[in-house]
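Tokens help. Consider this.
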Amino acid sequence: MLQEFIAYLATLADLPVVQALLAGAASLVLEDPVTLACGLLVAGGSMSPWAAALGLTVGLAVGDLGLYMLGRYPGRMLSKRILERPRFEKSRQWLSRNLITAVLTARCIPGMRFPTYVAAGLARAPVWKFALVAVGASALWTLTILYLTVRLGAAVGEYLGPWRWVAGVGLVVLAAGVQICISRRRRDLGGE
């Protein structure tokens, strides 16, 4: 089964558009593990670097804009009582003044994108400004992680030989586990 899956993935090496679409769609679920996986595929020569960079950047940007819209439209209708409080107005003003810093910081700290981007939507931060900063932050983050993974993956892959795929899958699974644990911990702390 694993050999068949790897053989199927190898056929995608000639289809960079499909690679980009798959990377973008998968990044909507767990972006950091998908970025690591794409980096390892690029390092192994199984994925086009341009497909990885473009697919991941677009996928992350779409996800970020989706979170913003979640706060901007449905969130606004659901929380009228919260939005009318003076404390919210102070928060809205702070976020408007510090939108760039908030978005860049949230991009780099696990668990902070959801509350920050939804809050930006609730605060009605200018969509064009949010989109510009979010896309820029997504591109910077993606290209940095992708570059580091490709460089390290290529260097380590030579030493691991045939075990490089096992190590790569282990790394991606570890990253996914860490991301899931952080999400659960944040949810548990928020529920108390």
